[in-house]
Hints:
Multidrug-efflux Transporter Regulator, Chain: A, Domain 2, DNA binding, DNA-bd_dom_put_sf, coiled coil, MerR_fam
Amino acid sequence: MRIKEMSDLAGTTPRAVRHYHRLGLLPVPPTVRGRREYGVMHLARLMRIRWLADGGLPLAQIAEVLAQDPGGADREAVLHSLRATRETVIARRRELQAQEARIDELIARVEDGEGLEPIPQLLVRFYDAVQARLEEEGLNTRGLRAERQVVTALAALALIPDSIGTFLAELDGAEWEAGVRIYAQIARLEQLHGEEARTAAVDLAEETWEYTLRHRSTALAAFSDFPTGSPGRTTWRLTQMITDTYTGPAQHLYLDRFLELLMADPDFAAVIRRLAGDEPAL
């Protein structure tokens, strides 16, 4: 029989048959009058290849199975391949279930009128509020945009803990406004110079620390839930990229002073060192 006839009988395509030839899965038949002539042996082997592939075996494992005798000494090797494939299928099923859950979450967000950013929706609302305030006051939004982009990237990598949302959910109207005001003051530091800038930076760091202490438990939980090891170091490096977008000396003085206050607290110092190492810097 010709290649198309055989492939039709096996429920596949001539292109797939040629691919199996290249991989050595299916022997190349003899040529008769310039055309390959396939026999029953080829059809039977092709149908077995398709049956194994439909069962979930990768082509590399199919080659191993076909090279073995399932009724003889290689029976255990065949069983091992099949069981390994079954575990792969189970793992894939779990991945699909997790993907289904994520899609359900996206559907729920759209139905609720929310956006499709990977960061927690409360954080989206907070960033939107800060953005509006900065634009209203004619302040530079570069640092905020950088932070939002970095946080979005971290969230896409599942490196933003859910406890960030818990921290924001704790904020009442006055504390929400206080957080927005701190961001606006950070942006305003860019415009200050000399002693005025230094005093404003130190005062703002103290104000930010007092704000943090008012929400100590949820803030500490959010810090603690960030990943450690290599993911934690990645998170800290990306955080440093945010601070690099600040151009005002007073802004960097503010960051340095706020980090000093955090590191002076044993609990915050411990979780920051888990992220950034023994000598963290912003």
